Amino acid sequence: MNPNAIELPQWDYAYGSPIATGKIKSCPADFIVEEQLPFTPSGSGEHVFLHIEKTGENTEYVARILARIAGVRQRDIGVAGLKDRHAVTTQWFSVWLPTQNEPEWADLETDHIKILQIIRHTRKLKRGVLTGNQFTLVIRDFEGDKEKCEQRLETIKAQGFPNYFGEQRFGHQGQNINTALALFEGTKKIKRQQRGIYLSAARSYLFNKILSKRIQLNTWNQVISGDALMFNDSHSYFKADDIDDALIERIATLELHPTACLYGKGDTGISGDALAIENEIIAQYPELSTGLIKFDLETDRRPLRAAPKDLRWQFLDENQLQLSFFLQAGSYATALLREIVSDS
Prior knowledge:
- The protein has about 350 residues and is of the alpha+beta class.
- Among the domains are: about 40-120, Pseudouridine synthase, CATH 3.30.2350; about 165-305, TruD, insertion domain (Pseudouridine synthase).
- The chain contains eight helices and 16 strands.
- It has helices spanning about 60-70, 145-160, 175-185, 195-215, 245-250, 270-285, 285-295, 335; strands at about 20-25, 30-35, 45-55, 75-80, 90-95, 115-120, 130-145, 160, 230, 235-240, 255-260, 300-305, 305, 310-315, 320-330, 340-344.
- Strands 1, 2, 3, 4, 5, 6, 7, 14, 15 and 16 form a ten-stranded mixed sheet that branches.
- α3 crosses α4, α3 (about 175-185) packs across α7 (about 285-295) and α4 (about 195-215) packs across α6 (about 270-285).
- The protein is globular, with a radius of gyration of 21 Å.
């Protein structure tokens, strides 16, 4: 066993331990995800866009089948993001087909895969090019104080929730992180096209550790000296050189969020107390930080807080809670759920 092996910790909660238990993802229909793109396909071009609903199937599987049906390479298939297998999800796929001779797309359809729309566009769909996802979730066998649950939901609606990467990013029992360690140590060879999964897991782990530390310090949703603040509706951020009442108010109203690094080479864009916290965490995991530099990843930043839009809830009966909300690209519904309910 690798003496440097990493186990996933219990990340700190922002609002205290969950106040209820329940079953999450009892069946795919309990976890509905609808992807939203920031543009509308034009109707012409070299790329065929397929809007697909899938139940209990992961994104990569559908992409492989599409490539086989279309007779193209795997890299000619484009997606905006990966979707959970244990769910009913709608998302877009693009297929590079410069000729007008299209295959029998209906061959893709099964009891679990449906094509909702087919339209052409000028450019390939690229990873990360999405506005976000609309979620409709059902928690079954709910046990807990309903009034306290609703109070917790009101707090999340008003103040947001910690923008943790979900457990699916790390693989079963954190195996993706330890595969990254093996890659960095040179004890495991991984094909270039598969490395991104493990490099992302390493960066995500460091981010979650920094966020967890900021929660301990009660600064995950507050600006501190040297922070970089990101706008809620874009990836743009700036360094908070002067902290005044106006800036504090913009954070309180969810217009701006403090950030933490997605570690890599280059300037982290922060200083002061914010930099000291990040350096403390990074120093604890030299194998991860040096490995990420070795593989030439550029540093980036991610908001410490996520703000759900149009968060609504209702109890369908005595033991079923339904939630609906929209999250911007990159945020995890499971990170919101963990602040409310623990999976039984």
